[in-house]
Amino acid sequence: MEVYADSFIAQYLAPFIDNGPWSFLLKFMPFVLFFELPLSLLVLMGVIKYSLLRMFEGERRPYFPPVSCIITCYSEGRDIQQTIRSLTDQIYPGKIEILAMIDGAAQNGHTYEAAMEMSDYVSGSEKRKLLVVPKWQRGGRVSSLNTGLNFATGEIVMALDGDTSFDNNMVERVTRHFEDPEVSAVSGCLRVRNADESLAASLQAVEYFVSIQSSKTGLSSFNVVNNISGAFGVFRKSVLELVGGWDAGTAEDLDMTLRIKNYFGRYKKKFRIIFDPEAIGHTDVPATFKGFFKQRIRWDGDLSFLYFRKHRPSFKPQLLGWPNFLMIIFNGLFSQIVIPFLIFVYTIWLFVNFPIEYSIAMLFIVYIFYFVLLLFMYLIFVACLSERPQEDLSRLCFLPVMPLFAFAARMNSLIATVWELTGRGHRDTAMAPWWVTKKSKF
Description:
This protein is of the alpha/beta class.
């Protein structure tokens, strides 16, 4: 039997090993075992933990604090009315104050007029108030948020995008968490509103469901939420006042998240940042691949700006605590900045060191691995979290394309990082005019 086994290996396996695929597996498997599978397992355990706790959750106690919704508006036009209407129609017995901040109102009169037209609609609802604030000179998103904070009277403050609408139980869902005095902020869940508009939008709908609604639920279960969404962030007003409101510059959402963690870490106070998959907001994403890659150049470049320039001194376990420190290094710095470079170098290495047919075969194996992992986790996420299971299951046909879409997004992220490190790309942003970003010390 030993002689037969040796001859079998020599005849069938040795040529395969000698030509390189065995070497490939030895290099690929450690990456899977030490990065992909642990992170996927952490998220999966967190999602299951959330689902089990949700099953045994008791009835909500009568805690309905007043809420101020700061809507940052710039060139939304009549779409702002859908946002205001969805906030007015909330199933929430407490007070809701809607603050529509019209940035650059001198140039965006159509948005200002559309918001003003909603005055009668809002005033017709009990415990609802609309205040439209025209900022005639454009100052950018951060300027609008801080101006709105000055007008806000609610105990809870929401930072919302003008092109985002909400399920009618959103306010009731997010405010329940603030009964716990340790909760500083809640990140809401975003879904793609225009998912059926194009292939690019459909792929982003799958991405949002996996990377936002599901992954952040898993991270939240272990109190390591990495970012409070800029389009849908909810804060205790007293916490915003403690950290001095939003800071000038780009990527104000991640910046605010890190500053909250740093503040509580510096003063050794307990805090929690929660992601709520049941608080649903709907937003439009770029309908073309060109628009998608352009948007992500800004997002990923801003990430590098914060990590390498603005918040580099704050990456300390003493400030963030070991769980958040390790998660930022692992899921932030490594996953979103280092991994794209490793994938690029790995792909080049594969084609340089192996015959093209072997290289293509190996990339196909990589593709199959990621597709199977995605399919497995997607079905579990739909079963545990989706409030629209039929809609999410209808997008199963797009899953075979997702590994390729993710690869393209990674390469785009690499370009964004290089652009930021060499050309300070964060200064070229649609979030604020140049005269505002120029004054930032970063």
